[in-house]
Design brief:
Blueprint: H1 6-16, H2 29-67, H3 78-129, E1 152-156, H4 163-170, H5 174-181, E2 194-198
Antiparallel strand pairs: 1-2
């Protein structure tokens, strides 16, 4: 490569190597994007300066070629200059593509985190605004009828007795026993409990 093109390439390499520096504390995506855009702008500006320098070198080369006609000189040809510019342009475009991909990755990560935080906040708000569950309705109090025989006998509940077996033993109706004794839970009678067994006269 001609010596007058080495300095721009070294400068560009130093600029591209910045990405290898130790990681700095995370910045907001908007700040990182602004920094990356500034880097790209500086690279583009440097490309313009290098292009202007190439044009100046072309003019100088042409003047030297005319002044030293016939002498064997090592001048940079137009093809070499065009190749150098193409290489530089390709490197800058590669850097721009990598920068854009890095920015998109950072933004995607931030958006994913924001989405999770938003969903968690919405769930919390919904939980706070949800009306408290209504207390379970108390079972309706049983109603008893006074329509049962007034005559009958007393009976002390024994182990294994049920209202059905007691009623069958005395020839009474289960509902009459329930009404006469105001039994709220017919499935539970206590051993030793004294019941009045209404029995219709025969």
């Amino acid at each position: 490569m001609p010596s007058f093109l080495r300095l721009p390439f070294v400068f560009l390499s130093l600029l591209l190597a910045v990405s290898g520096l130790p990681a700095q504390p995370a910045l907001p995506p908007a700040v990182e994007l602004a920094h990356l855009r500034e880097d790209v702008r500086l690279l583009t500006q440097r490309l313009g300066e290098l292009s202007l320098r190439v044009e100046q070198l072309e003019k100088t080369n042409a003047e030297l070629a005319r002044s030293a006609a016939g002498a064997q000189q090592n001048f940079a040809t137009l093809t070499q200059l065009n190749t150098a510019i193409a290489d530089l342009t390709r490197d800058i475009r590669t850097a721009q593509t990598q920068t854009r991909n890095d920015v998109l990755a950072v933004v995607a990560t931030q958006m994913e985190n924001l989405a999770r935080q938003t969903n968690a906040a919405l769930d919390g708000m919904a939980a706070r605004q949800r009306p408290p569950a209504a207390p379970a309705a108390a079972p309706a109090a049983p109603t008893f009828s006074d329509n049962f025989p007034r005559e009958g006998v007393s009976y002390t509940v024994q182990r294994g007795d049920t209202l059905s077996s007691i009623a069958q033993r005395h020839g009474a109706r289960v509902q009459d026993i329930i009404n006469a004794n105001r039994i709220t839970d017919p499935t539970r009678v206590q051993v030793g409990q004294v019941l009045f067994i209404p029995v219709a006269p025969r």
